[in-house]
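Quarterly update from the structural biology core.
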Amino acid sequence: MDVAGAGRAVVTCRGGARLRIAILAAGAGGMICGSCMRDNALAGELRACGHDAVLIPLYSPLRTDTADNSSSGVFYGAVNVWLQYASGLFRRTPRFVDWLLDRPWLLRLAGRIGAQTPPAKLGDFVLSVLRGEDGPQTKEMRRLIDFLRTDVKPEVVSLPNAMFIGLAGALRRELGARVVCELTGEDIFLDALGEPHRSEARRLISGRTGDVDAFVATSRYYAQRMAEYLDVPAERIAVVHPGVPQRLIDAPRTAAEAGGALAVGYLARICPQKGLDRLLEAVGILRRMPGMSEVRLRVAGYLGAMHRRWFEMLRQRVRRLGLEEAFEYVGEVDFEGKREFLDTVDVFSVPATHPEAKGTYVLEALARAVPVVLPATGAFVELVEQTGGGLLCGAPDAQGLARGLAELLSDGQKRMETGRRGREAVRTMFTTRHMALRMLEVYDAAGGQRTGGVGAAEGVSGSGGRGADYP
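Predicted structure, tokenized:
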């Protein structure tokens, strides 16, 4: 691939080719999710590189915090997919009925309802989707393939996660396209399925891995995790970390309030899995340390209906701890709101209870020169080690978090130096432009050897080497 002097110039692949790329992205039912933001940014950057990238929503319309790069229509609409699973009648309905059921407002409503359903209750439905061309939603598959064949003519089709791997064989066979499957955190959902659905889902996914030309994980940790989880050779999984927009790095920093109290920031989905309750406990401990009595906790992020009761219980805990004046929830924020929020905090922490596959919010904080304090788990380890932008706590508990927060909050010079170091690392290695260039290498390599795995083509390596494993 020719990337020399890329800047904003055209970046071509093998033989000077410009690729036609179809990026399938699974909507999150009205929630701004990390995978949607990643796919949306990737499509925009690939176009800026001179490639024909089409972003196609699945299930529901995409919602991101920047301009929407997706096409207008939704495929595999959540309502149609569910009804075709539940009843043979809807597998034979005419297109105008399906069109009505694909209205954006209805899909958003269905997404919100679906988000409140525990995975353990969705086992049979999940298996029906994983069966792909052998499942009950073949009408949806045919509509998608016909659209791709006539309107997009892709050379590469990117699946949003392994839950759609049942489509890979038909896409590859009927379109002659390279099929790339992203791995972005689906193990959490799969592990939440009840038995026997959990084991059957893993069996179905593992049985379809041969239909995929390349897998892409969002961290080295997750590449290793999924190689074992799905019984895929490690060399078949490339690593391409998420990226943040250049303008998040370059925007002038909002002036801090003179004499304001130090603040710890949390910017992620409001749910137990992200560890906000643990961070609250850590801040309570922190405020009892010398010189830390005025530290505040500022929180932002999406709060879904499923977790509102949990969050209200957390607020009650805030009151019991006497931290009402120290705790502030500002709600969900858009891109500009995110920048402004990060500029008001001095240290950032999202002590997730499950190892993170991506950790995009870590890079966002570092882009604003805000150092991070995180558990030494999942993608956090490599992100902190590669950026030098924070501290890792050995044990993911409140005491360890409090000590790490205190170390940075009590030393202004160290805090600023750590933040600046992290920001420069993001600037040089973790922008959306870097992400797009690395994905182009994966697409290029997948075309070089259809059955040999990503690592077999032109030096692009999986989780254990270099090449697509950046940085």
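Residues 412-429 form the longest helix (18 residues).
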